[in-house]
């Protein structure tokens, strides 16, 4: 496999009351967040001038974003070249869920692991 995960892009989890959860994390752990979550900046070890972010976000319990997984969380992994990785995964029998999505935040695709956990693969936009 030529393409690989290069980092943790984010952790997303379902809660009963996202606003209350955000307030608790702010008060007790100092995590400042908006309705879309919080960003944790970091630098690329091999290229310290390159700055990235990992995201943290509580979702409403009724969110369908994690479907078809029935798990209450989803992990986002940063990848180097999403198009090539999806082709490699397809050759290995791993099918993408739907079509790749691209916007100003980068390229996104979703797969399922063998335990039924939905994974989000993210290629951030080039700086």
- The domain count comes to 1
What is Rg? 15 Å
What is the helix content? 10-25%
CATH C-level class is Alpha Beta
Largest sheet: 7 strands, mixed
Cα distance, first to last residue?
25 Å
Low-confidence stretches: none
The helix/strand series, from N terminus to C terminus, equals EHEEEHEEE
Number of helices: 2
- The largest beta-sheet arranges its strands as 2-3-1-4-7-6-5
Overall mean pLDDT stands at: 94
Q: Strand tally, please? A: 7
What percent of residues are in strands?
A: 35-45%
How would you name the CATH homologous superfamily? 2,3-Dihydroxybiphenyl 1,2-Dioxygenase, domain 1
CATH architecture: Roll
If you consult CATH, what is the topology?
A: 2,3-Dihydroxybiphenyl 1,2-Dioxygenase, domain 1
Write down the overall geometry: globular
Structure description:
This protein is of the alpha/beta class and 127 residues long. It has one domain: 2,3-Dihydroxybiphenyl 1,2-Dioxygenase, domain 1 (Roll), CATH 3.10.180.10. It has helices at residues 18-29, 82-91; strands spanning 5-15, 38-43, 51-60, 73-79, 101-103, 106-112, 118-123. It has a seven-stranded mixed sheet. The radius of gyration is 15 Å and the shape is globular. The two termini are 25 Å apart.
């Amino acid at each position: 496999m030529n393409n690989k995960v290069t980092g943790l892009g984010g952790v997303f989890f379902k809660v009963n009351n996202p606003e209350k959860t955000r307030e608790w994390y702010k008060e007790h752990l100092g995590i400042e967040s908006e309705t879309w979550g919080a960003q944790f900046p970091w630098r690329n070890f091999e290229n310290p001038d390159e700055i990235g972010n990992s995201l943290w976000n509580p979702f409403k319990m009724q969110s369908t974003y994690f479907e078809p997984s029935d798990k209450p969380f989803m992990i986002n992994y940063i990848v180097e070249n999403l198009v090539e990785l999806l082709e490699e995964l397809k050759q290995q029998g791993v099918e993408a869920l739907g079509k790749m999505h691209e916007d100003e935040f980068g390229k996104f695709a979703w797969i399922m692991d063998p335990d039924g956990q939905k994974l989000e693969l993210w290629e951030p936009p080039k700086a």
